Amino acid sequence: MGFVRSRVLGYVLPILAIVVLTVLLTVTLFRLADIQRAIRNNVNDNMVWVIYQTHIESLMLADAVQHRLVDPESAHDITHRYQMFLSRISVLNDGPQKRALQAIGMADMIAGQAETVLRLGNRIGTARAGQTDYEHLRSALNELNALLFNASNMAMVAQWEEAGARIDTYRNAVLAIFFLMIGIWGGSAFISIQLLLALKKTRDNERSRQREIELRKQLENERKISELYRSFGSMVSHQFRTPLAIIDATMQRLIRAGNRMDTDEVKRRAAKAREAVQRLTYLIENILQADRFMEQLEVTIRSCNLAHLAQQAVAEQKLLASAREIQFLDETGGASTVACDPVLTIQIIGNLLSNAIKYSNDPMPVSVRVYREAGWVCCAVRDYGRGISKDDLPHVFKRYFRARTATDVVGTGIGLHIASELASLQQGKVYASSEPGEGSIFILCFLGNHEGEQVVNMVRSERMSDKENGS
Q1: Is residue 414 within 8 Å of 399, Cβ to Cβ?
Q2: What share of the chain is helix, strand, coil (3-state, %, to 5)?
Q3: If DSSP codes are grouped into helix, strand and coil, which group holds residue 442?
Q4: Which residue in 402, 399, 398, 421 sits closest to 410, CA to CA?
Q5: Cα(207)–Cα(215) distance, rounded to whole angstroms?
Q6: What Cα–Cα distance (Å) separates residue 353 from each residue in 70, 316, 349, 453?
Q7: Paired strand residues for 431
Q8: Fewest 10 Å CB contacts: which of 73, 261, 358, 377?
Q9: What angle do CA 303, 309, 315 make, to 5 degrees?
């Protein structure tokens, strides 16, 4: 239950942190957008300037009207001044400026008075314009100038107030963004810590997995060593007990009745004891030589004809067992090229032939067949001897293992193990099939092409390196 809760928290907390971090980032972006929009929409910054320009033009128009009243022949261009006044009034009545005037409560008054000035100004420059029209226009302009003066003061005060409020808004926004950034930093720090913890946990799990693998390998090695000792003990028990018993019985007989025996009888019994000693010596030397052979082994892979190698192994065995018939058959038609070590391959086939001869009766022949099957080139060695039981068959390639049907034949249980190891070093395989009383078939197979030499050498190098590390 605690493990499930820990896993749930391990997923939920980082997800919540990411959600909070996303919300904080979104709020921060909105706050920045509000600040940008407030900066862009500041109209009052220019309002004082617009009112001031309109006021100036209104004063200059009033001055031109005053000169016309004093001197009807004055050179002042009232029409030009009136046009300039109209342009300023149109700017003042534009959307943002009009809204600003409405905000300070001066829009209607200025608009009404400006309408009066415009109505009177339309008569200027015409033949109907008289002294009274100019006086009315001057009076209307004076009232408008007073309104513009008040509006300018009020706009300036509004601008100051707005600037102060804007400064407060910016300060509050900056503080809000500051705290949001602290929250973002905290969320990022939390997520980073979670990631580091997850990475550390992953590394710890990986180390635990590696330790578990190493412990399994050690346990497997211990199991193999234990089986090796049991197999070795079983082999010694079967193979060493008989010669030792012969030696012991012979020596006891000589001790008890040696003085009553003639010379020939003593020699015969001594020869029997010596044969037992030689048998023991053969067994021990065979074991030591096999171990030295595997330690000093060097594998040289090259393209070889498996049928030719099998013929050489057959020829060598015929020299050692000339009375035994060995049949040879090549079913590949000469297409039996493989990547292997020729010396070791002959050693494997010779070992299989030697066992076939050893564990079958003298009249029975031994056959060797080379054939192709599913991309492999194989050499099968068959005998018609005692065979191997189904229980013992899966273990025949283990070191020191000897089938129950072979206990009466001198051997150490190393030969087939070496054959299997040599085949593996060349990326080949050895397997067996057998029926008790009908004989056995041992088959050596290699891949039917020689393009994998580099792979084979690499595999061999790795295995030799593993053995060195293991030793």
Answers
A1: yes
A2: 70, 10, 20
A3: strand
A4: 402
A5: 12
A6: 146, 10, 6, 27
A7: 443
A8: 73
A9: 160
Q: For tokens 């040289």, what's the residue?
A: 300
76, HSE (Cβ side, Cα atoms, 13 Å) = 18
User: Would you give the distance in Å from CA 75 to the centre of its chain?
Assistant: 93
Cα 113-116-120 angle, rounded to 5 deg: 145
Strands, sheet with 366-373, edge to edge from the N-terminal-most edge strand: 326-330, 366-373, 376-383, 439-447, 429-435
Q: Which tokens is 188 given?
A: 């990022």
Residue 451 — very low, low, confident or very high, per pLDDT cuts 50/70/90?
very low
- Here the tokens at position 421 are 């190891």
Q: How far is CA 139 from the centre of its chain?
A: 90
Neighbour count for residue 448 (Cβ, 10 Å): 19
Interacting residues of 164 by C-beta distance below 8 A, sequence separation 6+: none
Contact between 299 and 266 under an 8 Å Cβ cutoff? The reply is: no
CA dihedral 201, 206, 208, 212 (to 10 degrees): 160
Alpha carbons 279 and 239: distance in angstroms, whole number: 9
Q: Is 266 helix (H, G, I), strand (E, B) or coil?
A: helix
How many angstroms separate the CA atoms of 371 and 377, rounded?
6
The class that CATH gives domain 300-470 is alpha beta
**H or E segment at 444?**
strand 439-447
* pLDDT value of residue 471: 43
According to DSSP, residue 379 is labeled E
pLDDT in tens, 413-447: 677 888 888 888 888 999 899 888 888 999 999 98
Distance CA 118, CA 111 (A): 10
Residue 301 or 288, more confident: 301
At 120-157, the pLDDT tens digits run 777 665 555 677 777 887 788 888 888 888 887 887 77
Q: How confident is the model at residue 379 (pLDDT cuts 50, 70, 90)?
A: very high
How many other CB atoms are there within 10 angstroms of residue 338's CB atom? 27
User: How many CA atoms, within 13 angstroms, populate the side-chain half-sphere of residue 118?
Assistant: 14
Q: Tokens at residue 244, please?
A: 């030792």
| Tokens representing residue 404 in the block | 């129950």
pLDDT interval class at 450 (50, 70, 90): very low
